[in-house]
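$ fold --in a.seq
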Amino acid sequence: MMKNLTQIAAIVLFAIFSHATVAQKGAAVAPSNFQFALSAEFYSLVSPNATLSNMTDGWSEAASYDETAELKESNPVAYFNYMAKTKMLEKTKKTFKEKLDIEIKPLETLKGKISYNGSFPSEAKAKKVLKNAPGEEYYISYRVDMFKGGVGVGPAGVSLGGNFKPTTTITLTIFNAKGKELQEFEIKEKTDIVVGKTKASVGNVEIGDGMDPDVVLERTLTVYENALNELVADYLKDNKKAYK
């Protein structure tokens, strides 16, 4: 009798563990922290003059234009930021749905309940999310950082410019309605793809014209897609039983 109870308990525990680790497959997850962070070098590539005077997140500017072509002409930095983050979001949601069978709900799902940075939810603490926005079956925290690498350095206050090959870090966490962490992954990928050549500068004065934002955008999305595919590969490897 004891042996049978032990076997039954083992089966139940295995079922619970299996469910906990792959429960989000086939489900919808609510974004509680979803951020794309691009280093200043991206904006320097497309900026026609001093980068610092053109730093802007692009979201408010984009709202005042009927066509993104108008925004590209008037403010290429804002245009690039807006298009890059929009396209990265679209690619992320499509990849999660098609390759992992996970639906990422609209970013505004928890709007008014948790902290937001513009259009993006930015609440990093699961306890605050559950306290202020309960009721969701699953929550997702997703952070992308694309930062500098391969930039020439000269004397103090002088940049020689150089090939910009960004390194991409993606951190993914999925937790349930009780705050239990179900999945956590972090990948860091260096690339050989040159997104662009940064301009030489002295102080805040840059030498040279900005690149076509659409060219930089296309290369940036390729770099991001490669990192995203690496994340997906790690996810599938750790959940291979669920994706047979």
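$ fold --in b.seq
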Amino acid sequence: MGSILVRSLKMRRSAATAFALLALLAGCRAPEQRAAKFAGMYEAAMANNDPYTARLAMQRAVSYKDDNPDYWQSLAGVELALGNYSGAYNAYLRAQELDHSNPTVLQALADLAVIGGHTEEARRYAKQVLLLQPSDPAPQTTLGFVALRDRDYGAALKRAETVLGQRPDDSNATILKARALAGEEKPQEALSLLRDYVAGHPRDAAVLDALGDISGRFGDLKGQKDAQQHELAMRPKDKALRVNYARTLYRLGDRAGGHDLTYAMVRNGEHGGLLIDILALWLRYEPRARSLAEVRELAADAPVADRMRYAYFLMLAGAPSEAESLIAPLVTLPVTAANASPLALLAQTRAAQGRNAEALTMLDAVLSFDQGNVVALRARTDLYLRTGRGRQAVFDAQRLVASKPRAVDDRIRLARAYRLAGQPQLAENTYRAAIQDIGGADPLLFADLRGFLVQAGRGDELADLQQQFVEQKRVARSQW
């Protein structure tokens, strides 16, 4: 939305300098004077493209003068620039408490509420803006995005058209209209609208992102690639965008392009915490021999945290003994908060080698220390499933689903555990509930349920299941 599509500022002054200046300013006597000094420092920092120092300064300003709505609004703005939506929302909320009739603050709260999925709050704040400024198009856009979340595509389209009638070049209203058209299963109209906009506004990252997203949802991988490539030219250091672009390249069959991009990120230590995502791409798309060789090379000099991720890759790639040799020198009993998950991973590597008793002893120890450890619960559930212990598997899988209700693989674990325990009705209920609760037409979930029906001699139900799968995919495409 227009009021919150803030481009993050890049320049950063050293923390040492910032704290030194803050300490110097703290010598003023009256709280109001101190707050004003820090507010002045905030203005200077923002003028110098230094949002980190600006945030520190404004945090100090509000600590001395808590009842100034302008200070809170300024703090919210810099939190927004830094991508801290939660901090921005809280700061705007405080500003609104102090000044109930500021339309800028109300609009920001409305937009942030939409981003967070709080549609009723968004609707309430947007309507307050309309009462104060009936001709303002921004709340119309916000209410359109609320309608979009409610899958009321006709209402969303109407809101978008209202705004575009006043401001034909409004990027957020253009995105709203495109998403509403896509929700109505009119992807070509949506994509044409966005392409036309990009032709006239080639550096609008938000519209490019929408173009790539809608292209991908409707299977236009070439369109998705072109949009992502355009975005990367503007934001070459955006690591998440680079990984998403690599994923698109792999899906298009450009394995060399996907590999070169991701391997450079890993080799240069520029994966930005996305190593597990990159390794998942390698596991799925790269030849096993090459990826194993590269992981062995990379793991040798990797930090401890990354070695754990490489070990997990090695285990999944069918080299559990190598994974064990990578982890074993780094962790040992007794269990601590720091080593619980690595020990669970070590146990997995041993279970994958058929050393079930050793693995179970270690997993039991981890879960005695931390009964909610997800890595250990998954490893022990899988061990129980593999060794035919359905009743024990049910207990662990139930805890997993309670902890991670939207994890498809955990729902499948629970269903398989029920099947193994001789409770087929509970297994089917688990599959059906997962489809209802999670949605998204997950192919693995539907494939497992399909296998269950075939095994139960209910092949006549497969056509209905396939139709449900198709419908779920359609619904998933329309969820924004």
